[in-house]
Design goal:
Blueprint lengths: L2 E7 L3 E6 L7 E2 L13 E2 L9 H14 L8 E4 L11 H8 L6 E5 L7 H7 L4 E5 L5 H8 L7 H14 L3 E7 L8 H14 L3 E5 L15 H13 L4 E4 L13 H9 L4 E2 H10 L4 H9 L3 E6 L2 E6 L4
Parallel strand pairs: 2-5, 3-4, 5-6, 6-7, 7-8, 8-9, 9-10
Antiparallel strand pairs: 1-2, 11-13, 12-13
Helix pairs in contact: 1-2, 2-3, 6-7
């Protein structure tokens, strides 16, 4: 359950996901919109999960199973939690770079105050940092951070990392209706994003089932207002509003593919049907996973999704 996909990514093309957090969600945040659900274990302490060579071997085996057409554009650390909590992240990146595929890391940026975290991330080719809002009260409301995290330190560390990092740095701002989408907050957030100087500033909205069921996207006018405000701050801004598509990679093992992908990435029903077809598997495989409670079926915005179910 270390690698999955590749899955179509709105930012990275074909992304082979790497989940370096091997259990129920462990994170420094519990974002209200998180597609993986509420955080099961809060943590801001780095620790060892998988040995780097284990991650490398699993990714290499996965790549060997893929058809040439499914070879990924990026190997992406996108975890069941916050990937920088892995104390071996830098060593894993160094090993994976020998595969000659660019490395991406998607982080909530909460641990950038740690020199070792910044050193590890500097090894990656592409890093996305989360900046949902530039207001401490709303930051706590939308990201629900670990009690010991400090907003001012978070902002300071963002600026420090952006001044040190030589790869492609992008930001992502998730807009949630009635939470961080007022003009005043959007202007403040755009100013912070601008100070980080990303190559691209992404604005996204919830498109998959969120941790808090009442979370919804702002209307089109507010999304456009946010886009225009970011543009006015001289940001190269892109919107992430739609579905990525059904073209996932596959290994030939339907059960492993389904479980590995939906652990960190809810699978929409049309994507699921396409994945079963590619793996030459019938609907009975999916039905069995649901019946045995490895996967749960949920609805969001008139669409059906499948998400990994953990047993407590």
């Amino acid at each position: 359950m270390i690698s999955f996909g590749p899955i179509p990514s709105r930012r990275l093309g074909k992304s082979l996901g790497i989940n370096n957090i091997p259990s129920q969600k462990i994170c420094s945040y519990s974002c209200i919109y998180c597609q993986v659900g509420n955080t099961k274990k809060y943590s801001i302490s780095r620790t060892s999960y998988y040995e780097p060579i284990v991650i490398y071997n699993e990714v290499q085996k996965h790549l060997e199973k893929l058809k040439e057409l499914d070879k990924p554009d990026y190997l992406t650390f996108v975890s069941n939690g916050e990937p920088t909590l892995d104390i071996n992240l830098g060593k894993a990146i160094s090993l994976l770079k020998t595969l000659s595929i660019p490395i991406a890391v998607i982080t909530n940026a909460s641990l950038l105050n740690l020199q070792q975290v910044r050193d590890d991330l500097r090894l990656a080719d592409w890093v996305s940092v989360k900046i949902d809002v530039n207001d401490e009260k709303i930051w706590k409301k939308i990201n629900r951070p670990h009690a010991l995290l400090n907003f001012s330190k978070y902002v300071e560390s963002l600026l420090q990392f952006s001044s040190e990092y030589k790869g492609k740095l992008v930001t992502e701002t998730m807009l949630v209706k009635g939470v961080n989408d007022t003009p005043e907050l959007l202007h403040k957030t755009a100013e912070l994003v601008s100070s980080v100087n990303p190559s691209i500033a992404y604005i996204s909205i919830p498109t998959r089932p969120p941790a808090i069921s009442t979370v919804t996207a702002p209307n089109e006018n507010i999304i456009n207002d946010g886009y225009q405000i970011f543009i006015e701050n001289n940001l190269n801004t892109e919107l992430i509003l739609g579905f990525e598509g059904t073209n996932t990679g596959f290994t030939g093992n339907a059960i492993e593919d389904i479980i590995n992908i939906c652990t960190v990435h809810p699978i929409r029903e049309d994507t699921m049907m396409e994945l079963l077809k590619k793996d030459d598997a019938g609907i009975d495989v999916l039905d069995s996973l649901v019946y045995n409670q490895y996967v749960k079926k949920i609805n969001y915005k008139s669409e059906t999704f499948y998400l990994r179910k953990f047993h407590v």
